[in-house]
Amino acid sequence: MSHLEKPAVSRVRDALIKANQEDTIVEFADTARSADDAAKSVGCDLGAIVKSLVFSVDNRFVMALVAGDHKCIEDHLPNALKIKGAVRRPQASEVKAITGFTIGGVAPVGLLKPTPTVIDGSLKRFDKIYAAAGHPHCVFSTSLNDLARMTDGIISYGIASPNSPEFAYSPKFSRSKTFSK
Questions:
Q1: Residue 179: is its pLDDT beyond 60?
Q2: Phi, then psi, of 104 in degrees rounded to 5
Q3: What local confidence, expressed as pLDDT, does residue 4 receive?
Q4: How far apart are CA 94 and CA 36, in angstroms?
Q5: CB of 72 closer than 8 Å to CB of 160
Q6: Environment class of residue 85 by beta-carbon count within 10 Å: exposed (0-12), middle (13-18) or buried (19+)?
Q7: Of residues 131, 123, 112, the one with CA closest to residue 157
């Protein structure tokens, strides 16, 4: 049986189709369990890989979607999601119960239960980004805007920091013509 036929991958496919997205799920012979593995399998920059991370904030499960070349700043999640409470990493069994996916294949869409989501704004660097598709050997491609729309996620530039200075990203803001002299 192909990994593409697994129920978890089918749930992701259904979520993509429901969101009027193209079914871009691909299967790899090698694992895409980690961001490094996924980037090698896809043949893209590490930063174009979306890490789907589940946390609990005051016993409420949330998801952080972070660029592969960044690490999540866990303490910034409550503020970004406008909720209060202590942040903890859930057990693998809790992640599976909330999302329906095993760690290494957690997709940002097709979750079993609605989950507040915040998205690392540094993903804006890429026209095409890649996320897990419900199995450690499957990913799908999308854009940051489509990912935000599909997940109803909040884009934040404060939930992640680069793993290395070479991956630092600062959004470009334009000056308002209304207030310029």
A1: no
A2: 105, -15
A3: 77
A4: 24
A5: yes
A6: middle
A7: 123
139-160 pLDDT tens trace: 999 999 999 999 999 999 999 9
Q: Is residue 33 part of a domain?
A: yes
Dihedral of alpha carbons 115, 69, 21, 95, sign? negative
CATH number of residue 119's parent domain:
3.90.960.10
Chain mean pLDDT for the chain: 91
The total number of structural domains that make up the chain: 1
Question: Does the residue 55 lie in any domain?
Answer: yes
The answer as to whether 158 is a domain residue is yes
Residue 177 has pLDDT above 80, yes or no: no
142 within domain boundaries: yes
19: left (phi over 0), alpha (psi -120 to 50) or beta: alpha
The boundaries of the domain holding residue 128 are 3-164
Alpha carbons 9 and 177: distance in angstroms, whole number: 47
Dihedral over Cα of 56, 109, 124, 156: its sign: negative
